[in-house]
Design a protein that fits this description.
This protein has 441 residues and is of the alpha/beta class. The chain contains 14 helices and 16 strands. It has two domains: 327 residues, 3-Layer(aba) Sandwich (Alkaline Phosphatase, subunit A); 78 residues, Arylsulfatase, C-terminal domain (2-Layer Sandwich), CATH 3.30.1120. Helix 9 packs parallel to helix 10.
């Protein structure tokens, strides 16, 4: 537990918040000669919507996901990858900015009637990569604002084909750039059409570096499945939708291979947060909307031949906030002016390190701090006064501060054994780190 006694970690955290240049400068050590001598990698980032930690075959699911499992076999599978939020809009803001949702102007789920979204001051992953010469496309769910100035084509994406919010909200318009082409969108063919547009973008962009962000609308409710996958999973419509996403991943991989660029492409497959009603949290406690591990821990597999060792498993803690600084390091893209909250995990992807310097990680739920993780320890400090997505008590659901609960989420992944009583020093140390981190907001 020497790390808990080392107060220099707090100073390291504040230096990273101030710019992260030290991590960026050290990232080059993780790259092989092959990666340094070739063009920057194409980036394909694929997210499921409400896909649970236990919903993929390579994470123990009974749902067959052979294409995603192959990505894991060809690359790395993370076992402790977490979202910065247990709900949709904030989690996507963290993926695309590398910053806590409470900084980005999107601390809660957006509705079609909201007139705000991702703040203009935020730099998205697409804007960063465009600065490095990348072609960029957003396909699928956006959910970071639906006014024209908030849509993907004004946030660094050259192209947008998708729905601006969740499929259970509003009139469900399918858009091409800023034009509505179908309303409501036909859900039965939606995964097919997302996939077709994504593969077409790859075909058109293959000669230059590109960034494809594919945000599937499923397995979020309402359930809809292509005729190709209906009834195939033997686990109902939910399992069929997961298999539909797996089919889509297979089409993406086949397109990369047929264009001869699968070896030049970093493919990342993950989810925005934990599952809602029917998905599997993989034995973890909690679900979507909660800061228990089942609500925030998500699957992540990544493939980049010749750089990510095949068949590897990363058991180190990593987060959605880390993708922005990691891609900045891997592509030599201009570092965003905004201080980033994540750290560069390219050494973990490359299998050259088993750990990266990291101070406390904060779990926000809406604007409220609910928990924090440092090393193997997770400290819960707040909670809703009723479970999310249930009828709230009289007066509405409220946030409450709780007596701190401490869990070792490596030894006790389902957070069933509060260890705060016997580890008061750990509790005090994490509380101190939380206070220091919050002072930067």
């Amino acid at each position: 537990m020497a790390a808990l006694r080392d107060k220099s970690g707090r100073r390291d955290f504040l230096r990273r918040v101030a710019g992260g240049s030290a991590m960026a400068a050290g990232a080059s050590m993780a790259f092989s000669a092959r990666a340094r001598s070739s063009r920057p990698p194409n980036i394909v980032l694929i997210l499921g919507d409400d896909l649970g930690y236990g919903d993929l075959g390579c994470y123990g699911s009974g749902i067959a996901t052979p294409n995603i499992d192959q990505v894991a076999r060809d690359g790395v599978r993370f076992t402790h990858f977490t979202s910065a939020s247990p709900v949709c809009s904030p989690s996507r803001a963290s993926w695309l900015t590398g910053r806590y949702p409470t900084r980005t102007g999107v601390p809660r789920v957006l509705s079609p009637d909201d007139t705000y979204g991702l703040a203009d001051s935020e730099i998205t992953m697409a804007q960063m990569l465009k600065g490095a010469g990348y072609a960029t496309a957003c396909v699928g769910k956006w959910h970071l604002g639906c006014l024209p100035q908030l849509l993907p084509t004004n946030r660094g994406f050259d192209e947008f084909f998708g729905i601006p919010y969740s499929i259970d909200q509003g009139t469900r318009p399918l858009m091409l750039n800023q034009q509505v082409i179908e309303e409501p969108a036909n859900l039965d063919t939606l995964t097919d059409r997302y996939t077709q547009y994504a593969t077409d973008f790859i075909n058109r962009s293959k000669n230059n570096p590109f960034f494809l962000y594919l945000g599937h609308s499923f397995p979020h409710t309402p359930f809809a499945v292509s005729s190709r996958c209906a009834g195939r999973s033997l686990q109902g419509a939910y399992g069929d939708m997961v298999q539909d996403i797996d089919w889509s991943v297979g089409q993406i991989m086949s397109t990369l291979a047929s264009n001869g660029i699968d070896g030049d492409t970093l493919v990342i497959m993950s989810s925005d947060h934990g599952p809602w009603m029917q998905g599997s949290p993989g034995g973890l406690r909690g679900r979507k909307g909660e800061s228990w591990e089942g609500g925030v821990r998500v699957p992540l597999v990544a493939r980049y031949p010749g750089w990510i060792p095949s068949g590897s498993v990363c058991r180190n803690f990593a987060t959605t906030l880390d993708m922005m600084p990691t891609l900045a390091a891997m592509t030599n893209a201009p570092w965003p002016a905004n201080p980033l909250d994540g750290v560069d995990i390219s050494p973990l992807l490359a299998g050259q390190q088993f750990d990266v310097p990291r101070d406390v990680f904060l779990y926000f739920n809406d604007i409220y701090l609910h928990a924090a993780r440092f090393g193997n320890w997770k400290l819960h400090v707040g909670r809703w006064n009723s479970p999310p997505f249930t009828a709230p008590p009289a007066g509405g659901r409220q946030n409450v501060q709780i007596t701190p609960e401490l869990y070792d989420v490596v030894a006790d992944p389902d957070e069933s054994h509060d260890r705060s009583y016997r580890n008061q020093g750990v509790v005090a140390d994490i509380q101190s780190r939380i206070a220091s981190a919050l002072s930067t907001f």
